[in-house]
Here is the input.
Amino acid sequence: MTKIAVLGIGLLLAGCDAGVQTLGWELDPIPTADRLPGDAYGRWFGGPAYYRRWSLGPPASAAFFPVGVWMQSPANVDRFRAVGINQFVGLWQGPTDDQLAALAAAGMPTVCDPQVDWRSHLADTTVQSWLQPDGPDNAQLNPDGSYGPCIAPDDLRARYEALVTTDPRRPATVSFGRGVIDYNWVGRGDCTGRIDMYADYARAADVLGFWVYTIDNHDPLEWIAAATDNLGLWSAYAKPIIAVVQASNIHGDVRPTPAQIAAQVWMAIVHGAAGIEYYCHQIDPAVNETDCLDAADGPATLTRIDAQIAALAPVLNTPPIANGVTVTSSAADVPVDVLLKRQGGATYLFAVAMRGAPTTATFTLRGLPGSRAVNVVGENRALAATGGVFSDDFAGYDAHVYRIAH
Here is the structure.
């Protein structure tokens, strides 16, 4: 089968000279060395330039790609910083002065709820974004332990307007639950099946996220890619999407392997995710918020993935090329999905096998004639492309990143 790397139907980069004016803000110009004749740019939220509208928001830097961790105690900050985490997302019963002071001392920014005396922290540069209620698309827990309906999109939008009116210097973030891919999931209560709500929900935040926990729920691992696609579609590809990756043994019965953690990360990124957030808690048989770090191979796994993301951040923060590559898979039932970008005088091809079975992928790159070396990033090996064509083997859910100099 053949699959072309085309990302979405939203914000099209219609030019590549001095920047494209759109939505009231300007995209960064694309350097001449990062273009090839005939390049068509895919749909994209805008990269670092998107964050330039907020003076206290996330860095508008090509070197910054969000890699967060959910609801951790500041006491754990050194352990998470050591594996490459650059954001704490959620502060339990916070933000408090002590929490923010500890994170500031460690140089760790946070995305947190506007809860405990949050207005007193409006000038605190440690806070980079405010959270909308987590999982507004789910049935909401009542004080008596029963569940009511999901939060109505209009109500979430009203909260958003109040939030950004009080603090216009930061973006607002919202994360959705399993319903973004499991349309009939009963956890949405009366809202089950109402996927029409998500386009309205997407208007109630500046940064969108989701959590589906495919490993814990024994679902197809590729759901994380499909969920990324859905949020992109529902937001017209105009907002960054953060994919929450299961990195822990949530209920004590299934621990993600290093390969499964990496697959979740790269499937999300290939499908357009603009940030990664790890879920690291174990809930049963006892709560352990650092389970992902306490596993024997946990720190090494996260360090390896996060170091590669950090090294590739300047590449990931460039617009996707929609017509740069086609790929065929030797196994008809194992598609290989791709993302192509150009940066620093080189083409970068991100590729991931979308099923848990092996295949051989053959890539045909446009605009790169002759014989060229293909460096497999982070794997200490190289391939050769002739006339822009090369092949590589993939294990199930395997991912590779290739660099080809222009």
User: Anything to note?
Assistant: Confidence is low (pLDDT under 50) at residues 1-22. The chain has eight helices and 21 strands.
